[in-house]
Design goal:
The chain is mostly beta strands. The protein has one domain. Helices cover 6% and strands 47% of the residues. The protein contains one helix and twelve strands, in the order βαβββββββββββ. The strands form three sheets. Strands 2, 3, 4, 5, 7 and 12 form a six-stranded antiparallel beta sheet that branches.
Length: 165
């Protein structure tokens, strides 16, 4: 079985937030397209308020950004063991319990992407070496491990929310 690991740079996403909200990358057989959006209140045709997502062209501190990574198997065959890893930039704070990905196991890192675990198994150390449970604000990376093979031309998406500090 072939293992494919993909790293998406959230810092790159944040950089593109000011110039646009979309970027694409091809890594082996998997094509990625990342989108950064914010939610705004708007009125629909009937005059009722609704929440709508729009490109995150300008983000201010305290504002929540919704990152969605769309993936497609554009290779020549089914791809096994797809792993998508997304580092969180230092100016973004992960919003607790916001990572999503149907058909994927989601794990996190608090050590710069060296190790990954579920939230209840993540620990951090203070300056004295004492160990404490990690908080969502301690996360440095998010990883989605697809639970099944990705057939040719199959598509999906994973995502999370983060707040600009």
């Amino acid at each position: 079985m072939k293992k494919l690991t993909i790293t998406v740079s959230c810092l790159m996403l944040l950089t593109f937030v000011t110039a646009g909200t979309l970027w694409a990358q091809k890594k082996g057989d998997i094509e990625l397209k990342a989108v950064a959006e914010i939610e705004i209140e708007d009125f629909n045709a009937e005059g009722k308020k609704e929440i709508k997502r729009v490109p995150a062209t300008k983000v201010v501190p305290g504002e929540e950004v919704i990152y969605t990574i769309h993936y497609t198997n554009s290779g020549q065959k089914t791809t096994d063991n797809v792993v998508i890893t997304n580092p969180l930039p230092e100016h973004m704070r992960y919003k607790d319990s916001s990572a999503a990905g149907v058909g994927a196991t989601i794990v996190f890192s608090v050590d710069g992407g060296k190790t990954f675990a579920t939230p209840e198994n993540l620990k951090i150390q203070d300056a004295l070496g004492r160990e404490f449970p990690a908080a969502a604000s301690d996360y440095t990376h998010i990883r989605w491990v697809l639970l099944s093979s990705l057939p040719l031309n199959a598509k999906g998406q994973v995502g999370f929310r983060a707040v600009l500090e």
